[in-house]
Specification:
three-stranded antiparallel β-sheet, 287 residues, mainly alpha, Arc Repressor Mutant, subunit A, Four Helix Bundle (Hemerythrin (Met), subunit A)
Length: 287
C-alpha cells in the first residue's frame, strides 16, 4: 500500500483554513461599510443644498458635464441626482434644453399651499386624534423631543436640515393618522416643495423661534394624547396659520424667475477628497 502523500495532507487543511478565515477586526470593517454613503446620494445632497440656498439660482441652466467637473465626480451620479431632484420638483427638464433649476414659488402659490395644508392636515388631525393610535402618539412624541434640542432655526438648508426632517416626520404622522392612503401619498410627494417654501419664508420674513414652533407642536401632541379631536384640529390650524401670517406680512412682490439661459455660479470645492463629498462641503462662489 503506497504511503500517504504528506504534501497533499498538508495542503488540504491549509485550503480549508483559508476559506474559513475572517478579518481580524470584523467590527472595524463593517463600521466602514455602514458609514460610507453612495456617491449619488452625496451628489444629490450637495446639489439640493445649492438649489435650496439659491447657490444655483431659480431658472438657471444645469450643465451635467460642468457640474460633474466642479463636484469632482463622473456624470452618472450627477444625472441620478438631477433625476431625483426633478421628482421633487426642484429641477425641471425639457427636451433639447436639458435641466434647469425650477422657478422659485410665487408668494401666491405659497399662500395657497399653506391654505391647502391647513385644510388637509386639520382634517387628518381631527380623525387621527380620535383614534389615539399608540404608534402615532409615539412618533409624534419622539419628533417633539427631537425638535426640542434645536435652539435656533437658521436661514440655510444645512442649518435647517435635521429640524425640517423631524418636522416632516411629525406632520406626515399626523396625515397618516387619518388612515387614508391616497392623502398620505399625495402629502409625502410634497416634502421638497414644503421645505422650499419654509426656506423662502425664512429668507423673506425672518426665522421663527424654535421654542415657539416646539410649543405649537407640543399642544398638538397633547390633544392627540387626550384623544381630543377638536383641540387637535384647532392646535394644528393655529400652528400653520402662524406661518401663513408671517408670509402675508412679507412686503416684497412676486419676483419673476431668472432667464432660463442664465448660467449658474461656479461651485467651489472645499479642501477635501472628492470621495468625502457632502452636501455641506460645497458652496457657490460669491461674485
Amino acid at each position: 500500500m503506497p504511503a500517504p502523500d504528506v504534501h497533499d495532507a498538508n495542503r488540504r487543511p491549509a485550503r480549508r483554513r483559508e476559506s474559513g478565515r475572517v478579518p481580524d477586526k470584523p467590527g472595524k470593517s463593517l463600521s466602514r461599510m455602514l458609514v460610507k454613503r453612495p456617491l449619488s446620494d452625496q451628489t444629490y445632497e450637495a446639489l439640493r443644498e445649492l438649489i435650496l440656498d439659491q447657490g444655483l439660482r431659480p431658472g438657471s441652466r444645469l450643465n451635467v458635464d460642468r457640474l460633474a467637473r466642479e463636484l469632482g465626480v463622473s456624470s452618472s451620479p450627477v444625472r441620478e441626482a438631477l433625476a431625483r431632484l426633478e421628482a421633487e420638483r426642484l429641477v425641471v427638464s425639457e427636451m433639447y434644453s436639458g435641466y434647469s433649476v425650477a422657478p422659485e414659488p410665487t408668494l401666491t402659490y405659497l399662500r395657497d399651499l399653506l391654505s391647502f395644508r391647513i385644510v388637509l392636515e386639520g382634517h387628518c388631525a381631527r380623525i387621527g386624534a380620535e383614534r389615539r393610535d399608540p404608534q402615532v402618539i409615539t412618533a409624534l412624541r419622539a419628533a417633539v423631543d427631537d425638535m426640542a434640542k434645536t435652539r435656533r432655526l437658521g436661514r440655510k438648508y444645512k442649518e435647517y436640515r435635521r429640524f425640517v426632517a423631524t418636522d416632516a416626520r411629525f406632520h406626515q404622522a399626523i396625515v397618516d393618522s387619518a388612515g387614508n392612503e391616497v392623502i398620505s401619498g399625495v402629502y409625502a410627494s410634497m416634502h421638497a416643495i414644503l421645505l422650499q417654501s419654509r426656506l423662502y419664508l425664512n429668507r423673506q420674513a425672518g426665522s421663527a423661534r424654535a421654542d415657539e414652533v416646539g410649543e405649537e407642536h407640543a399642544r398638538i401632541l397633547k390633544a392627540f394624547e387626550a384623544g381630543d379631536a377638536d383641540a387637535a384640529e384647532i392646535a394644528l390650524r393655529r400652528h400653520l396659520e402662524g406661518g401663513k401670517r408671517r408670509l402675508l406680512n412679507v412686503p416684497t412682490a412676486d419676483q419673476a424667475p431668472a432667464p432660463r439661459g442664465a448660467a449658474h455660479k461656479p461651485i467651489e470645492k472645499k479642501v477635501m477628497p472628492h470621495h468625502a463629498l457632502t452636501g455641506a462641503g460645497w458652496r457657490a462662489k460669491s461674485k
